[in-house]
TrEMBL record:
<dbReference type="InterPro" id="IPR012341">
    <property type="entry name" value="6hp_glycosidase-like_sf"/>
</dbReference>
<protein>
    <recommendedName>
        <fullName>alpha-1,2-Mannosidase</fullName>
        <ecNumber>3.2.1.-</ecNumber>
    </recommendedName>
</protein>
<feature type="active site" description="Proton donor">
    <location>
        <position position="320"/>
    </location>
</feature>
<dbReference type="GO" id="GO:0097466">
    <property type="term" value="P:ubiquitin-dependent glycoprotein ERAD pathway"/>
</dbReference>
<keyword id="KW-0256">Endoplasmic reticulum</keyword>
<dbReference type="GO" id="GO:0044322">
    <property type="term" value="C:endoplasmic reticulum quality control compartment"/>
</dbReference>
<dbReference type="Pfam" id="PF01532">
    <property type="entry name" value="Glyco_hydro_47"/>
</dbReference>
<dbReference type="InterPro" id="IPR036026">
    <property type="entry name" value="Seven-hairpin_glycosidases"/>
</dbReference>
<dbReference type="GO" id="GO:0016020">
    <property type="term" value="C:membrane"/>
</dbReference>
<dbReference type="InterPro" id="IPR001382">
    <property type="entry name" value="Glyco_hydro_47"/>
</dbReference>
<feature type="active site">
    <location>
        <position position="225"/>
    </location>
</feature>
<dbReference type="GO" id="GO:0005509">
    <property type="term" value="F:calcium ion binding"/>
</dbReference>
<dbReference type="GO" id="GO:1904380">
    <property type="term" value="P:endoplasmic reticulum mannose trimming"/>
</dbReference>
<keyword id="KW-0325">Glycoprotein</keyword>
<dbReference type="GO" id="GO:0004571">
    <property type="term" value="F:mannosyl-oligosaccharide 1,2-alpha-mannosidase activity"/>
</dbReference>
<keyword id="KW-0326">Glycosidase</keyword>
<keyword id="KW-0479">Metal-binding</keyword>
């Protein structure tokens, strides 16, 4: 499955950012219809480098790295979202750099001179104006890669977007010895945390200049999701207790105010009072069982995973949003997201329960039956009709199919690594 997507991207879309699987063409930036992640830097190639190393041959990995070094530049007059490009491009470059340079990982490239790290530094430097122009330390959500923060850029950003940078920025600081990247990411994280409510919940959207919350709904889903994920994974990766302390305080508040009485549903509640604000859950919150596995709360992880398993069984995919009161989807697309697959992978690694292999088989069959085309895989635009979107987002190769592959490849060295490494819902 991975090479069906990869080969078609390289044949029909490269050097564009993404593959259009219905029309067998590439998708890049469009000034008339701007997209937060598209910027003419061969995003799918960069994002999927580490997956290629894990699944493909050493020769294929080396060829792809050389393509990036020869062709990719971030000196573009394009406006992009810092969060999206951080998790996909910066994360992809750093993961591939470590694989290419560390002989203990089994993918070292002979005569590799650190070019991917230099690209990562260049990209991170282009992100820094988003932090420096903010009064609060919470970064602007978007930058122009060539000119910095546009004068008309919004001052509203979501918690996940501003608070999920510490892994990539922290790794970059450690690889380069330059602390500024980790410092600005940590400052942003603490600026959000310091504005939590009296019941230790954070809101969804904040004004970066005034520090005032604009949207006060708190949940584990869209707009906040990876804020929690990065806290725990930063502790795992860096071993610093401060991240664990914040995560544990947050997790206690989640269990007390967001989790319903059944122990299965994580709701949208008001950050100040914990009162219910909406009766839906979204697909991005499917990451949570995986984080709970890493934290050691297996019982909660199993319960949360079952919710998304049953929704998937109903729709043969995961709708973007599901109303648990009316027991029906109310946003009907599925863009090939990885979060449910990632949680399934972690649960199998922790329990070795063959049920999770069954879940993986179900996902694999539905992806092949509903989204596979001659030119790749297409997101589902409407689960009711089966209408497909002409887009294969880069995370299909870098995440969704990576976790599926590792779920079934039980002998893969990555499943036996005895060291602190993490996967994120952005890359590695």
């Amino acid at each position: 499955m991975f090479f069906h997507g990869w080969d078609n991207y390289m044949q029909h879309a490269y050097p564009h950012d993404e593959l259009k699987p219905l029309s067998c063409k590439g998708l890049g930036s469009n000034l008339h219809s701007a997209n937060d992640v598209l910027g003419d830097y061969s995003l799918t190639l960069v994002d999927a480098l580490d997956t290629l190393a894990l699944i493909g041959t050493q020769e294929q990995f080396e060829l792809a790295v050389n393509k990036v070094l020869a062709d990719v530049s971030f000196d573009k007059n394009n406006k992009v979202q810092v969060f999206e490009l951080n998790i996909r491009a910066l994360g992809g470059l750093l993961s591939a750099h470590m694989l290419a340079s560390d002989p203990s990982l089994g993918h070292q490239i002979e005569n590799y001179d650190g070019g991917l790290l230099r690209l990562a530094i260049d990209l991170a430097q282009r992100f820094l104006p988003a932090f420096k122009k903010s009064k609060s330390g919470i970064p602007y959500p978007r930058v122009n890669l060539r000119h910095g923060v546009p004068k008309t850029e919004t001052v509203e950003t979501c918690t996940a977007g501003a608070g999920s940078l510490i892994l990539e920025f922290g790794v970059l600081s450690r690889l380069t010895g330059d602390p500024q990247y980790e410092e600005v990411a940590k400052q942003a994280l603490y600026a959000l945390w310091d504005r939590r409510s009296d019941i230790d919940l954070v809101g969804n959207v904040i004004n970066i200049q005034t520090g005032q919350w604009i949207h006060t709904a708190s949940s584990t889903g869209a707009g906040i999701d990876s804020f929690f994920e990065y806290l725990l994974k930063a502790y795992i990766l860096f071993g610093e207790d401060e991240y664990l302390e914040i995560f544990e305080t947050s997790y206690d508040a989640i269990k007390q105010h967001i989790l319903d009485n059944t122990g299965y549903l994580y709701r949208n509640v008001h950050m100040d009072s914990g009162t219910l604000m909406a009766t839906w859950i979204d697909s991005l919150s499917a990451f949570m069982p995986g984080v709970q596995v890493l934290y050691g709360d297996l019982e909660a992880a199993i319960k949360g995973h079952l919710v998304f398993y049953n929704i998937w069984r109903q729709y043969h995919a995961l709708p973007e949003r599901f109303d648990f009161y009316h027991q029906t989807a109310d946003i009907h697309n599925y863009p090939l997201r990885p979060e449910f697959v990632e949680s399934t992978y972690y649960l199998y690694q922790a329990t070795k329960d063959p049920f999770y292999l069954h879940v993986g088989e179900m996902i694999m069959e539905d992806l092949n039956n509903r989204t596979r085309l001659p030119c790749g895989f297409a997101g589902i635009g409407d689960l009711r009709t089966g209408r497909l979107d002409d887009r294969m987002e880069s995370f299909m190769l870098s995440e969704t199919l990576k976790y599926l592959y590792l779920l079934f490849d039980t002998d893969n060295p990555m499943n036996a690594v005895d060291s602190n490494f993490v996967f994120t819902t952005g890359n590695q």
